[in-house]
Amino acid sequence: MNHPVPDLSSKDPDWWRQAVVYQVYPRSFADADGDGLGDLGGITQRLAHLAALGVDALWLSPFYPSELADGGYDVVDHRDVDPRLGTLDDFGAMVAEAHRLGLKVLVDLVPNHTSHRHRWFQEALAAGPDSPARDRYVFRDGRGAHGELPPSDWQSVFGGSAWQRVPDGQWYLHLFAPEQPDLNWSHEEVREDFRTTLRFWSDRGVDGFRVDVAHALAKDLSEPLRDLGDLPRVAEEALLRTEPGSHPYWDRDEVHEIYRDWRTILDAYRPPRAAVAEAWVPDARRALYARPDELGQAFNFEYLQAPWDADELRRVIASSLRTAGTVGASATWVLSNHDVVRHASRLMLPPGTDENAWLLSGGHAPAVDGAAGLRRARAATLLMLALPGSAYLYQGEELGLPEVADLPAEVLHDPIWEQTGHVRKGRDGCRVPLPWTTTGPSYGFGPGRAWLPQPPGFAAYSVEAQDGAEGSTLELYRRALRLRRKLLDGESLTWAQDAPDGVLHFTRCDGWRCVTNLSATAVRLPPGEVLLSSAPVEDGRLDPDTTVWLA
Question: In degrees to the nearest 10, what's the CA dihedral of 243, 244, 248, 253?
Answer without folding.
Answer: -150
